[in-house]
Design a protein that fits this description.
Blueprint (H helix, E strand, L loop, with lengths): L2 E4 L6 E4 L38 E3 L13 E5 L14 E3 L2 E5 L3 E6 L13 H18 L7 E8 L11 E7 L4 H17 L3 H9 L5 E5 L2 E4 L10 E5 L11 H22 L4 E6 L14 E6 L6 H6 L8 H10 L3
Antiparallel strand pairs: 1-2, 1-6, 3-4, 4-7, 5-6, 7-9, 8-9, 8-13, 10-11, 11-12, 12-14, 13-14
Helix pairs in contact: 1-4, 4-6
Bound molecules: zinc ion (ZN) (3 copies).
Amino acid sequence: MPELRKDPVVDRWVIIAPERANRPSDFAPAPRRPSGARHCPFCPGNEAETPPELLAGRPSASARDTPGWTYRVLPNRYPALKIEGGLDPAAEGLYDRMNGFGAHEIVIEAPEHDASLATMPADWVTDVLMAGRERMLDLRKDERIAYVLFFKNHGEAAGATLEHPHSQLIATPVVPGLVAAELAGAARHHEIRGRCVWCDILHQDRGSARLIVEADGFTVLAPYAPRFAFETWILPNCHRSSFEECGLEELQALARSLGDLVRRMNRALDFPAYNLILHTAPLRAPTLPYYHWHVEVVPRLTTVAGFEWGTGFFINATPPEDSAARLRESGE
Ligand SMILES: [Zn+2]
Ligand SMILES: [Zn+2]
Ligand SMILES: [Zn+2]
C-alpha cells in the first residue's frame, strides 16, 4: 500500500509507492527502439494484459476488454495511490502520515500506437477530455478524495514510460501544494481587486506580445513569468472554476486548441517531449469567483538542476515574448 508522508518543515506531502518500481518501460534500460517495435500492453488485442476497463468508447458496442474501442480508461497497474481501505491519518512523533488512498487511472487516448495529440482528429481528443471529465465526476463522489490531477506526459524526457498515447488521472486525498498556492494567491488577488486574476491576465495579455493565438473561446499565451522555456498556458475566456462543469462545446474547442498548440510546438521545437497539466478547483469546491481552470503545457527542453532544486527559483533562457513569437509564426 502506498503511503503519504508530510515533511514537518515545509508541509509538503510526498507519496512513498514502492510498487511503482516494478513498472515496465519502453525506454529503459535498453536503448530506445523505433516506435512500435516493442510489445505494447495498450494496443488493441492486448486488453487482457491491462486491468479491466472502467470506461471506454465503443461505437460498435463491442464487449468490454476486447478490441473495437476508440479510448479506454483503466486503473494503473502500478498505482501511485490506491482506492483501498481508509485514510487512517496518524502521527508518528512529530511526523504526519496517512495511507496512500486515492486513485491512479490511465486514459488510452486512441487505438493507434503512433497517434498523438498533433495527429488525432479533434473529435477523438474531445472524447478523451469527456472521459477525463466523467472520471472526475465519478471520483468526486468519494468524500475522501480532495483533488484530481488530469495530466499527460508525452515522450521519455517528460516522464512517459510507454509510447502509446495516453494521459493519466491521479486522485489525491489532499489538495496538492501547487494548487493550494494558486488558490491562496488567487483568493488574495480577488480580495484586493475584486476580480479573478486569470480574467485580469486574459484582459491584459490578449493585447501583449505574449499572445500566441485566440480561437473558439480559448486564449493561448506565454505567461509573464514562465519557469520553463516555451511554457504555455491555455485559458478559457469564460470564467469557470471547475473543469468538470464544462460542456461538450467547450471541450470540443479545447480539443482543437490542444491539437493546434502541439502542432505549433512540433514545428517550432522539432517534436519535443512535453507535460500537459490541467489545473482546476478542488473537487466539491463551490463555484469560486477567484479560481479559473486552465491548462499548462511545458515542453521539456532543459533539465531542472541544482539551483532550481535548491531554491524553487527558475532560470529561463527564453523570454516569453520570444517563445510566443515563435509559436505564433508556427501556426498552420
Ligand atoms: Zn501500443
Ligand atoms: Zn476568471
Ligand atoms: Zn496552474
